[in-house]
Amino acid sequence: MTEKNEISVLAPANGEVIALSKTSDPIFSKGTMGQGFGLTPSDGEVVAPVSGKISMIAETKHAIGITTDEGLEVLVHMGVDTVGLKGEPFEVLVKNDSYVEAGQDIATMDLDFIKSKNLDTTIMVLITNSNDKIDGLDVSEGPAKTGDVVAHAYLKTAEEADPSKKLSYDELATFIIKNVGGKENINNLVHCITRLRFYLKDESKANDDILKNQRGILDVMHAGGQYQVVIGNEVTNVFDAVMKQLPELRDSDAPQPTNNENDNRNPISKAFGNLIGFITGSMSPVIGVIAASGIIKGLLALLTLPQLGALLNVKSPIYITVSAMADSAFFFLPVIVGFSAAKRLNSDPIIAAVIGGFLTYPQMITWGQGFKTMFSLGSWNFQFLNYSYSIFPMILAAWLAAKCEQWLKKVLPSYLQMIFVPLITILVVSTITLVITGPVIQGAANGIAVFINWLVSASGWVGGLIIGAFYQLLVIFGLHWGVVPLVAQQIAGTGQSALNAIICSTMVAQGAAVLAVAVKSKKADMKELGIAAAISAFCGVTEPAIYGINLRYKKVFASGCIGSAFGGLVTGLMHGTMFGFTGGLIGFSSFFNPKNPTDLNSFYAFLIASAVSIVVAFIATWVWGYNDNMTMGKKVAKKQRPGTK
After folding, report:
1. Which of 100, 332, 398, 597 could serve as 48's disulfide partner, Cβ 3.0–4.6 Å?
2. Angle CA(369)–CA(374)–CA(378) in degrees, nearest 5?
3. What DSSP string runs through 104-125?
């Protein structure tokens, strides 16, 4: 019986209905064959649980398949491990291709004979194409008579039932909203470079499998209070489409906190995860800006090369103006990072921006260069530092400002808060940052950045080979987000990053691997997805390649890692480094040294390493990694990114 998008499923016999997970067969009980239920029969008369066409009768008579008008493939499996009885206790009353009504007799089974063989008589009713056809199945456990309605299957919509259909942005947005639990289940939504990051009231209401299998969605993951839907390059368009349907969310700058009852991590792990999540979350909105600035600086260096006729003079108004555009993002980085971090903390972003402005105030920099020491306390000398181009001191300052604001709003009357909350917060946090936290954190950050650059440079080909081979594994586990701020700090503090030069090769190699799949495959969908993912990887974003194809054909991912290992080896041998943030082929200009345009060593290292990465990864994939006869694995369940709340 069908009502709206619901199909009633009948008890196939008299007996006790039990949940599928309680049945004795490990394959059935885990849902491997699809959703369903078990029934312990009290007699041997078996009826059709649904109406439909008989699509299969097992030679050993122990199983009968029925396909409903709605396309559900329902399997009635009589007994556990009864295939070995070769049909002796069963009599089938229907024929292949005949049509049966729900409740019609289809078979009999000799329960005593089955029990005499020490076998389980449980009848399994399974919807074997559950993932494709139904949103869920409600089962009523307990005693039942033959023909009683004991379950309800909820059909998917046409879009859900055909995950290969490419949806428009608006259609995909509607699909996503529905399958994360509906509008009423969404607290807030933000996005990063490839993912929609939902803050849900109840994550258990989200349909992971349905979302994962829809074209246009690469993966989903649960991580520390966020429900992340991996879209890839088109994330901004999908985000805009979702927000168009959820206009009420635009009024909220920061996500509301959620309680994750399933977060059973120990306090140290949780604290560390939240710290990493806060740092990387604060940096995520900034990455695009500093990447663009790095490209501009590289292009300027290219245009001043004597080998190209020095198309631009470093003292010309055009060069100085465009250079200022590029430098501004780095020079005022504390202002931008402070604003971003405050929005993430749901505190006042203007207050954080003012504190960042104080740290980069030109007069403060001049004083620091002239006086060096602010004051002395015994043997301790408190020095002026230049906080332009810095990241970590401002992130801590934003956190301190948020805590200060929260405390002041509790103790101050409402009529004093408008003026005195920002006044006290700016004075207190700016002073603490300038005198205590800033020097400590900035010194440590600079030390780490210098050490990493030295380590990569000193290790030469060994470091390049190892980092090149394994860096993209960090992307799978979400750990690369812990490297991003370090690379940004290296470039902001020292003007270069040898580590980022090696990382660049890993992006190119994964792009070459997925491109080989696109070229070799004769499947239209594979070509379309592969080419799009390759372009994305060559532009510095590998997630569409990794989650769309490479990890689902693990040899393709391995081929990419082989290519990047060789690319990293070349980069290490040539001691290549990057002077900008943007990786991939699109970041070629980041390998020109803006301080010494005639130094082309790093650019040559980039060209050779990229060529090696592309050739090795492409050939490895073509020869060993992929063919159209391979079976695509399930979308990989990605490890949680630390502290994404």
Report:
1. 100
2. 135
3. -EEEEE-HHHHHHTT---PEEE
Q: Are 118 and 68 in contact (CB under 8 A)?
A: no
| Residues 6 or more apart whose Cβ sits within 8 Å of residue 265 | 273
Task: Give the residue numbers annotated as catalytic, written as ranges.
Answer: 192
Residues 469-523 pLDDT 10s: 998 887 776 566 667 777 877 787 778 889 999 999 999 999 999 999 999 998 8
Residue 39: its H or E element: strand 35-41
563's CB contacts (< 8 A; 6+ apart) are 508, 509, 512, 513, 612, 613, 614, 615, 616, 617, 618, 620
How far apart, in whole angstroms, are the C-alpha atoms of residue 207 and residue 616?
39
Q: Of 314, 315, 286, 282, which Cα lies nearest the Cα of 300?
A: 314
Q: Where in the chain is the domain with CATH 3.30.1360.60?
A: 169-249
Class of domain 169-249: alpha beta
Give the CATH fold of the 6-155 domain: Glucose Permease (Domain IIA) (2.70.70)
- The pTM of the full predicted model, rounded to 2 decimals, is 0.54
Task: Report how far Cα 604 is from the mean position of its chain's Cα atoms.
Answer: 33
**CATH 2.70.70.10: which residues of the chain?**
6-155
Q: How far apart are CA 586 and CA 583, in angstroms?
A: 7
Reported as a single tens digit per residue, the pLDDT across 257-301 is 444 444 555 666 666 666 766 776 677 778 778 767 777 877 887
Q: How many CB atoms lie within 10 A of CB 51?
A: 20
pLDDT in tens, 455-465: 777 777 888 89
